[in-house]
Amino acid sequence: MDRTYTSDVGGGSDKVKVQGWLREKRDLGSIKFLVVSDRKGEIQITVKDDETDKSILDVVDSTPRESVVSVEGLVVENSQAPGGVEIHPDAFEVISKSKKPLPLDPRGKQDANIDTRFDNRFMDLRKKDRMAIFDIRDAACRGARNCLEKRGFMEIHTPKITVSGTEGGAEVFPIIYYEREAFLVQSAQLYKQLMQAGGAERVYEITPQWRAEKSRTPRHLTESWSVDMEMSFIDDQEDVMKVHEEVVRDMVEFVVKTAGDKLDKLGIDIEVPELPLKRITYDEALEIAEEEGEKVEWGEDIGIKAMRKVSERMENQGHDFYFIKRWPSNTKSFYYRPDPGDKKYSQTFDLNYRSWELSSGGQRIHDLDLLEKRIKDQGMDTSNMQFYLDAFRYGMPPHGGFGMGLDRFVASILGIENIKEVVLFPRTPDRLEP
Ligand code: ATP
Ligand code: MG
């Protein structure tokens, strides 16, 4: 007999076979209620002393919760069963027996602490509301892919092992690469730009990136995922922002459309943002922060406290997503283009969701002399960057792009405060397993 998903039981056939985890065993003496859980749902299996075959009753008794089982039997309507139907088994096979005790309770009846949960993530993921997050994440990725594909972007795969850092600083992970020093990439930045010199014009990548973050915050991972894109022949950063906001809108829309049942499971209601998204300048953000008692010196990054003030103002005006653009040049990486009208500023933006930065982007420098000057001004070592600089010597179009943290995006739209929850197997300074 073919296997039926538990969610399809009751669809007309009177005999079915279901396979899954024995999630629940409730013993009321002469009657026992079992629950079998699979990827799509759960079904009640009812066994009765005076009705069920004795050999089945014996197997049920000796089978611990969370064992993988195969059950065949009659579908019976029962208004008291979850879903309105149950199975009365005439075959019950244990495919893989679970050990006792369980490291945590996937029914969620007893709370496990966060370390126990992540140490035993496979079991934690058996909880339906945990797995729902990853269906939503999957939908978000598809939404991004669909959107970029429709707009003529090519999906690319760039190296993850490299010889130089991209975002400066010491936040790189060195690796042993035969006799040489190499690093895990901090972002796809340099390679996305090489693709502009290669003539691809519109590229994107959904990629991991690694940063040896020193601070432990609820929004930083050492291994994170980024939706990265880059496009050529732009007039300025506004061209990039226009595509960016469409990507964000389409990601949310695809989640709502295709994972609505998962949002329901989590009790979350999401609104698809209307375009254009709100735009404010860095200077305006500083004014808001100062009015709310959080002064930031011009030229400094906007810290989380000041950002909360800015985001409160934006939220009061009905904006969860908003851009902050025109950052001072010195707050941004070397590859961003200074504003030709006023070089103190750069042609940059961040996209925020409330107080969290979701992305950074802008127009890049495509002029080699200017690029070399910026690199020198920032005191960077160019010895490992010749492969990058060469790409600017033989014709480089004006270009720009953004990198958006996928983990931050998913956590943000779901209102999840700890980024680890939206990552299957998170990597942090304290966690390298499983
Ligand atoms: P932050 O200031 O929040 O540490 P950043 O400005 O250093 O971020 P960018 O270099 O702008 O980060 O990277 C682009 C995007 O990638 C960020 O806006 C963020 O969404 C994501 N990102 C960067 N670093 C991390 C990290 N350690 N963990 C999770 N996401 C990250
Ligand atoms: Mg940034």
Task: Describe the model.
With about 425 residues, the chain is α+β, with helices and mostly antiparallel strands. It folds into 2 domains: about 5-95, Nucleic acid-binding proteins (OB fold (Dihydrolipoamide Acetyltransferase, E2P)); about 125-275 and about 320-420, BirA Bifunctional Protein, domain 2 (2-Layer Sandwich), CATH 3.30.930. The chain has helices at about 55-60, 115-120, 120-125, 130-150, 190-195, 235-260, 260-265, 280-290, 305-315, 370-375, 385-390, 405-415, and strands at about 15-25, 30-40, 40-50, 70-75, 85-95, 155, 160, 175, 180-185, 200-210, 225-230, 280, 320-325, 340, 340-345, 350-355, 355-365, 400-405. The strands form 4 sheets. An 8-stranded mixed sheet has the order 6-10-11-18-17-16-13-12, sandwiched between helices. Helix 4 packs across helix 6 (about 235-260), helix 4 packs across helix 12 (about 405-415) and helix 8 packs across helix 9 (about 305-315). The chain is elongated. The relative contact order is 0.10. The protein binds adenosine-5'-triphosphate and magnesium ion.
